[in-house]
Write a structure and sequence with these properties.
Elements: H1 2-13, H2 15-24, E1 29-30, E2 44-45, E3 53-54, E4 62-66, H3 67-73, H4 79-82, E5 88-92, E6 100-104, E7 112-116, E8 119-120, E9 141-148, H5 152-155, E10 162-168, E11 176-184, E12 188-199, E13 202-216, E14 226-229, E15 232-235, E16 242-257, E17 262-276, H6 285-288, E18 294-310, E19 315-332, E20 345-363, E21 369-387, E22 393-414, E23 418-429, E24 433-446, E25 451-462, H7 466-470, E26 481-494, E27 499-517, H8 524-529, E28 532-553, E29 557-570, E30 583-591, E31 597-606, E32 609-614, E33 621-626, E34 629-639, E35 644-651, E36 659-661, E37 664-665, E38 670-678
Parallel strand pairs: 7-10
Antiparallel strand pairs: 1-22, 2-3, 4-9, 5-6, 7-8, 9-10, 11-12, 11-38, 12-13, 13-16, 14-15, 16-17, 17-18, 18-19, 19-20, 20-21, 21-22, 22-23, 23-24, 24-25, 25-26, 26-27, 27-28, 28-29, 29-30, 30-31, 31-34, 32-33, 34-35, 35-38, 36-37
Length: 679
């Protein structure tokens, strides 16, 4: 009874705010879409509004990648799963095990928020707070939701270009699972075991994943042009050397339903990556591709989440306690650790995050749904250096920052056709800086013609990273980066849903961007070191996103297409922004006409890509344009008896030579095959 009394008091205390919202809603508002709790989600997104909502009713530009596609393309990680998504670009320095950055609508990796089960995984110890996707495996994933456009009004800092939410599986039904073993080119061996299920009040899901591959030298791989090393310029390609790359991943989620209204869920995720890399800045030739250059990365995350329905399921409350930790140890030849210990060095980077978040979803009857919440999050960064072999370990940087946030959003439907959301957020960073963001969306549905017209507008912001604030190049007075973006689009179904397509125009203006270089704000020591971080940058990114799916022959042939046309420009210099290709996309043809057989042919294409070639001998940077390319992959799955399937992949069928980052080549034609057993 005491708990119920407290709930009623809290509800009455917020009554004046709710009253204002009720007066703003039209009296003819119809019942809004209500979140469904503790049920299988199906074709539902939870990212666009932080509540469960059918994608068909969302006003946002969102792509949902289901678990079947994740498993088909995710043997080596998340890179190939995400490639081809409208508005999304991934660039890596040479394939599996190398640095892999993601960009949404031209934003930087630090301006693109990545979540696992709604918890941010951006690394606080990196220069701009971005995510290296190379460490993550693709087991136990229910779906991936890619939400494009500024989302800081709901998600806070980093969500300027959009949000990628990786959602793990919920256990349901009788226990069922699978075991996968495959191998092939480059000495690749991959295995994965997964299971989900539910018994009485308990439900669970888990996955274990392991990958081994012999990676070739990345810098200059399959590149015949000149290569710049620290000792000069030599012709390519790179020497024929290889080092093992090993990945491991584990994911688990367990839930206990106390009663009809209360459920407790816990989740754990852990990933590790051990891989070689190349050091073209070394002055001794043997040190460029030497085995000493290697890295070991680990990521761990845990959370406990309590979901509770109260007042006859009028108020749904969710409290989440979370923590994660990212560590990277990098061994590098000819790296100046300290003046006292020049030479080979081990650098350690650790970024940690912990906090708590409350979210409430209050049903307002005919006046829609009010979502509100508060969050407190602490980020820490610790960097160390150790001269190898046997030198002392020195802490070179250490910093800590707390962010407290409040947010609210109102969803309602007018005339049973027009779905509207509006909301805002306030973030207080480090107890000193406060920034506000907002977002509004509208979608008009014409079910009789299969048409949806939609539009969104909002602001984004990104607080300066701990490195930008507190490193030797840092500036503690940096202001948050900001942007304003809008989009409008059309979703259409034709011929009895046999053809569906979506088209979106987007535009975003960035200001107060953080640059590095010489500036009046630099201290004397920073000027001697080469510069500092300062606010000055401005950019404009605009373009068109298109996706389509067609049933060419029922139960036999399907086709998919995605395409992004983007213009990303630095408004200070007028030039295009590096690694933002003007054209990119993917096309697939899927055959299911033979019993138990599914075959997909997929072409991923990227147009000419602006980049910068770095001369490791003179330290000069030269603008270059990486050539356009098309990569062809084929996936096949044939089901035998007793739950056994034969799977196969043929990657880079045409043996295309291309680069995502200048001078770093990618693997050629490769063949993989294996068996999968399901129970």
């Amino acid at each position: 009874m005491a708990t119920l009394s407290k709930r009623r008091s809290a509800l009455l205390a917020g009554g004046s705010m709710i009253s204002i919202l009720l007066q703003l809603a039209n009296a003819q508002a119809q019942q809004a879409q209500e979140p469904v709790q503790f049920q299988a989600l199906g074709d539902i997104d939870v990212t666009a509004t932080r509540t469960e909502q059918p994608v068909s009713q969302s006003a946002s530009a969102i792509t949902v990648i289901p678990s079947q596609e994740v498993e088909r393309r995710g043997s080596t990680g998340l890179d190939d799963v995400l490639r081809g998504t409208p508005g999304l670009n991934i660039y890596s320095s040479g394939g599996v095990g190398t640095l892999s950055s993601v960009s949404l609508r031209g934003a930087t990796s630090g301006q693109t928020l990545v979540l696992i089960d709604g918890i941010r995984i951006n690394d606080p110890s990196t220069t701009n707070g971005g995510v290296d996707l190379s460490i993550f495996s693709a087991g136990n994933i229910d779906r991936i939701e890619v939400l494009r456009g500024p989302q800081s009004a709901l998600y806070g800092s980093d969500a300027m270009g959009g949000v990628i939410n990786i959602i793990t599986k919920r256990g349901e039904g009788a226990p069922h699972g699978s075991v996968l073993v495959e191998g092939g080119s480059y000495g690749m061996v991959h295995s994965r075991v997964q299971e989900t299920g539910a018994v009485d009040q308990w439900s669970w899901s888990f996955a274990l994943d392991g990958l081994h591959i012999n990676a070739p030298a990345r810098y200059g791989y399959r590149i015949n042009g000149p290569l710049s090393y620290g000792f000069g310029i030599l012709p390519g390609p790179a020497p024929d050397v290889s080092e093992p790359t090993n990945k491991a991943g584990a994911s688990a989620q367990i839930s206990y339903r106390v009663d009809e209204d209360l459920a407790i869920t816990g989740g754990l995720n852990g990933f590790s990556l051990g891989a070689p890399f190349d050091n073209p800045g070394a002055t001794v030739p043997a040190d460029v591709f030497g085995g000493f250059n290697r890295l070991l990365s680990t990521f761990g995350q845990g959370f406990v989440r309590v979901d509770d329905d109260a007042f006859g399921k009028t108020l749904h409350s969710r409290l989440t306690l979370f923590a994660n930790d990212t560590r990277r140890d990098v061994w590098q030849t000819e790296y100046l650790c300290t003046l006292a210990f020049p030479g080979n060095c081990k650098n350690g980077f650790q970024g940690a995050r912990y906090g708590a978040e409350y979210q409430g979803d209050l049903k307002l009857g005919a006046y829609g749904l009010l979502t509100f919440g508060a969050k407190s999050e602490t980020e820490t960064m610790t960097n160390t250096s150790q001269a190898e072999p046997g030198g002392p370990s020195l802490v070179t940087q250490s910093a800590r920052q707390v962010t407290n946030s409040l947010y609210a959003q109102h969803q309602f439907t007018l005339l049973d056709r027009l779905d509207i959301t509006w909301g805002g957020r306030m973030d207080a960073v480090g107890g000193l800086q406060v920034f506000e963001t907002w977002r509004t969306t509208a979608a008009y549905r014409l079910e009789e013609t299969g048409t949806k017209l939609r539009a969104t507008a909002g602001t984004g912001a990104k607080a300066a990273s701990l490195y930008q604030l507190y490193s030797v190049y840092g500036n503690p007075n940096l202001q948050p980066e900001q942007n304003f973006g809008y989009d409008f689009g059309l979703d259409q179904k034709l011929f009895g849903d046999r053809l569906t397509f979506s088209a979106t125009y987007f535009n975003s203006d960035y200001k107060n961007l953080i640059n590095y270089g010489y500036a009046p704000s630099c201290t004397a020591s920073q000027t001697l070191l080469g510069g500092c971080y300062y606010n000055v940058g401005r950019a404009r990114i605009q373009g068109l996103e298109f996706s389509a799916e067609a049933v060419l022959a029922p139960d036999a042939w399907r086709a998919r297409l995605s395409y992004t046309n983007m213009d990303a420009r630095n408004l200070i210099t007028g030039g295009v922004i590096a690694r933002r290709p003007h054209n990119m996309g993917a096309a697939s043809l899927i055959y299911t006409g033979a019993p138990n057989l599914e075959v997909e042919g997929r072409v991923t294409f990227v147009g000419p890509n602006p980049d910068v070639s770095f001369n490791n001998y003179t330290y000069a940077q030269t603008p270059v344009v990486l050539p356009a390319y098309a990569k062809i992959d084929i996936y096949a799955n044939y089901k035998l008896d007793h739950g056994v399937s034969v799977i196969g992949r043929l990657e880079n069928l045409s043996d295309a030579r291309y680069q995502e980052i200048a001078n770093y080549g990618v693997p050629g034609r490769a063949v993989y095959g294996g068996l999968k057993y399901e129970w």
